[in-house]
Amino acid sequence: TYIISQVQKSGCNGFADDEIFGMAVHYYEENEIEVGKPINCNVVVNHTVELTEEEKEQARQDAINRLRDEEMAKMRRPIQPKKASEKKPQVEQPSLFDF
Predict the structure, then answer these.
(1) How far is CA 45 from CA 14, 17, 20, 86, 96, in A?
(2) With left for phi above 0 and alpha for psi between -120 and 50, is residue 35 left, alpha or beta?
(3) What pTM was computed for the model?
(4) Spatial CA neighbour of 7 closest among 42, 53, 31, 49
(5) Cα distance between residue 80 and residue 63, in whole Å
(6) Which of 5, 9, 11, 99 is placed for a possible disulfide with 36 were both Cys, Cβ 3.0 to 4.6 Å?
(7) Domain residues of the chain, as ranges?
(8) 64 near 34, Cβ under 8 Å?
């Protein structure tokens, strides 16, 4: 939001990668910076990243490995017993036969 608002304030329609990177660095270096309200807009990038088949396969394997590790971590977590507060309190029912 900060970068988009800065681009909008400038009135320019195009920026070099270094200019946008500089805005991002500035945002993270400043402690008290006004971000502004979210802006509904579209961002157009004038270049694409082309991955080789090896890079695509490596990314696929990395994703599979991450998923496997996450699922294994879930399985290793101990099962938490339900807390007493989650149980419904027992309501004592009066008997018709008690005097």
Answers:
(1) 10, 10, 12, 51, 79
(2) alpha
(3) 0.45
(4) 42
(5) 29
(6) 5
(7) 1-46, 47-77
(8) no
